[in-house]
Structure formats: structure tokens, C-alpha cells
Amino acid sequence: MTYDAYLKSVGEDGAMFVGDPDTVANKIIRVVEELRLDSFMLHLPVGSMPHEDTLKAIRLYGEQVAPKVRSYFAGKK
Length: 77
What we know:
InterPro entries: Luciferase-like_sf. This protein is mainly α.
């Protein structure tokens, strides 16, 4: 993958969700809204980054990203 292709993948319209918890949560919310999804599955690549970083990503997703996304959609019911 070229650097330009990577930047497109992680950009606003890309398929990869990369960034701080607020960036990731906001992108999930936007994609779910725009595509009118009723579910969202996140794939975290295991083995391509150090174990400690994988655990940190899982923790951040569970403690910051998921609650923000849930809270946003709870207000939509």
C-alpha cells in the first residue's frame, strides 16, 4: 500500500477507523448514519502491532469509543 492510499483509507471517507477515541467514534457515528446501518463490526488487526498497543486499543474502544457511540444513538430512539 502506498502512503497516499493509506491516507485515503484512514481519511474521512476511508474504510479504516484510525485516530484518537473521538475521531474514531465520530467516524463510526457518521458512517452508521449515512449508510443507515443497524449494526457495526470492528476488526482490530491482531499480530500486526505490539500486544500492549492492541490491549490499549481495545481498552480505548471499550471505555471511550463505544460509550460515545451508544450515547449518541440512545438519543435517537
